[in-house]
Amino acid sequence: MGPPQTGVRRELPWPGIDFLEERRPPREPLSLISKGERRARAAEMRRRDCEAIQRARFKSGAEALVYHAAVNEAGDETSPHQEQMQPPRALMVAAVAANAEAKHVERTRAGIETRMAHAMSAAPVTPSAAIAGPSLSFDSSFESMNLQRATRVAENEYNLTMTNDTRTTGHTQWYYFRVRGAKPGVSYKFNIINMQKGRSLYENGLRPLLYSEKRASSEGIGWRRVGSDVCYYTNFYPRPTKSGRPTRTYHTLTFTVTFPLANDTCYLAHCYPYTYSDLQRDLRALSEDPQRGEFVNRQALCTTLAGNRCDVLTITNFGAEAPVGRELASAFDRPGSARKKRAVVLSARVHPGETNASYIMHGLLLALTADNERASALRDEFVFVVVPMLNPDGVINGNYRCSLAGCDLNRLWDAPHKHIAPPIYALKTLMRELKRTTELTLFCDFHGHSRKENAFIYGCHNNKDPNKKFHERLFPRLLSMECVPFSFDDCTFKMQESKKSTARIVCRKELGLLNSFTLEVSFAGTTLDVEEPYHFSQDGYRALGRDFVNALHKYTFLQQEEINEQMCEIEQVVREQTAAASLPGAAGSVGDSENDKMDDEDSDSGGSDDDPLDGE
Q1: Residue 568 CB: number of other CB atoms within 10 A?
Q2: Active site residue 497
Q3: Catalytic one among 453, 520, 594, 616?
Q4: pTM above 0.85, yes or no
Q5: Which stretches does DSSP call E strand in 155-215?
Q6: For 386-425, what is each residue's pLDDT tens digit?
């Protein structure tokens, strides 16, 4: 199989198998930050930014451009229009200073527009000569990378700009780049100055990830949490909107890193990277395994816009009388029985930057193909149809949210076009065929969440069938019993208008699927452990996939008496949440209102760049 296709005029090699973890990492604590401390940090950083920008209005800054990506999202040399989409140095320092002053002095829209118009007419400030001393070397010319520009603003401080999602003017949250030339024991400060989301887990203890090639080769140590003085705050760099007027601003993620070894090549990332090539490696190992491969049939669901293969796996106990590579329809046959196997559909990575979803999926695949009684019982009962990566093009190009066409594929499920969103069109068509063939028991799409800790589920309410009241909450309830980091209280079961075109709601409405879920898992970690909050590791995410399989086994073979007992407990939880929501000053129930508020703040009504996006 050839290298992954980007769909634009560039080649992105795979970083290599040195990214495999050889030594199990220690549990890395997640230090929660109080709201007061968080606000004080952000205020101090904004004050420093404002002072620096004001000084830059009157004196040429001693900053130097040390890295700039060679192509824009269309594969061409960076155009002036693309330059204007990015913060400095693409935007004039005078404009940035005027915007900062306007934010502090006059909050009215008219005041902002007046000051911006005046500032944009000023002459740009030209940086002076490069800062003395050797600079770090940056690079993002590899698969799933994301770095547009690096500017050295002090001896050991760099302003970084991430690349917009392909054919969009935003969705900057995922970062992944290579650094060389660092001196051990020296603290380097990085400021990512065009983050889009208004809120982030970096405000509450999340730390960046670092990978050292030398430590990996000599000690078997892979990705580790690093960074001190981590802060996420609103900056003063104007952010373009649909109107073209920069009346909003970006956010800055700043952190300080000390690199471990000299003459090393290191990588920094938002979450554990998992590339398209990683997936192909894992699927090849799975299908070629002499034991696990017996239960797996790997095929192409479709071809993406860039020409990449989108894989679909069929996992079940195939009959001994037929080869594994037979038609999907015959996989539902039960030897000696007219009753067909039921179907479960699972998917991940519709949003490319939610890389933790791939580790959860990997853990699930290992659990489903294991040689044990629990996995075998599930394979006897179900045919699992699994799409491990719904957006290969976005993953390859280092996007956070969108596809090669610049679309959020999880906002196209209501009417997917086969030439704009081939994977969504193909999977929805396949699910309709499954519905005609057998009972479709459960659908779940795996996602990452950047504003909340723990794992939780978005489901769909069941208000029209009183005989199955709250039955949509049974599987999440069982998952909370199997999985320590999973929070049943954080689950929501509402069908918001803003989410009507997502996979979860479309499958509920059009396919009548009661168990139609989005599994959300934090980029940070969990606060539910009895000892202390901790960051998720790669193995921790894989364990979530294993726990999902265990919960599904319990759900499948639950006796009626046990179902009645669980439903009584669920109704009691709902009553307690409703009572808590009715108290004076209460924001709403933990299970619905509060989470829906956060979810709606993070969501958009159709993939708009003007709103911060998160999770589903």
Answers
A1: 11
A2: no
A3: 520
A4: yes
A5: 157-161, 176-180, 187-195, 209-212
A6: 999 999 999 999 999 999 999 999 999 999 999 999 999 9
